[in-house]
Design goal:
The chain has about 180 residues and is mainly alpha-helical. It has helices at about 55-60, 80-100, 105-125, 130-140, 155-175; strands spanning about 10-15, 25-30. The chain has a domain at about 75-175. Helix 3 (about 105-125) packs across helix 4 (about 130-140) and helix 4 (about 130-140) packs antiparallel against helix 5 (about 155-175).
């Protein structure tokens, strides 16, 4: 099956479930260019892909090398009854707004933000400051909801809540 073409791209034949060569469709494959993510590229923990929290940026600017995962903890002032009430209410309002803006306003957003805020309040009042533990509890609590008529799920909602909390921590540490 000889074919000539003026293009430097190789000619490939693609049969669409047909045994007849006359039914095959020709298309040109584009030349392959090396990807920045080729097999020889390695990704290491010391090359951040996401913005670092302020504490990690400060340590890096001082020349400190730390290959350990940084524990993220909420401030101790948030673990008081008044702090827990204030922060959980902030999360309820902020998460609800974020869900409405990110997806679309829907009744499930009220349930999601209320459940996330209640879970967060319970974590803070029991002096749980580790964000990983707060996230796991929140996922468990959010899994109790039905997401059948929603754009969300328990994991995406909990991740969004914790991302908002870390942004708040970062902005309050700069004040």
């Amino acid at each position: 099956m000889a074919s000539s073409t003026s293009s430097s791209a190789p000619l490939l034949l693609h049969g669409l479930a047909s045994s007849s060569p006359s039914k095959a469709q020709a298309f040109f494959a584009l030349p392959v260019t090396p990807s920045p993510f080729s097999a020889s590229t390695s990704i290491c923990a010391s090359s951040p892909q996401l913005p670092l929290p302020q504490a990690a940026r400060a340590a890096a600017s001082r020349g400190e090398q730390d290959n350990h995962v940084q524990e993220l903890r909420v401030p101790d002032s948030w673990l008081t009854p008044a702090g827990a009430a204030q922060e959980s209410e902030w999360l309820r309002v902020t998460l609800h707004k974020w869900l409405d803006d990110e997806y679309c306003p829907e009744p499930a957003n009220v349930d999601i933000s209320n459940t996330a805020a209640r879970s967060y309040h319970e974590s803070l009042t029991t002096k749980q400051s580790d964000l990983g533990e707060i996230l796991l509890k929140m996922v468990g609590d959010l899994q109790e909801l039905s997401y059948q008529e929603s754009f969300h799920g328990a994991f995406s909602a909990a991740n969004a809540a914790v991302r908002l909390i870390t942004q708040r921590m970062d902005s309050s540490s700069g004040e």
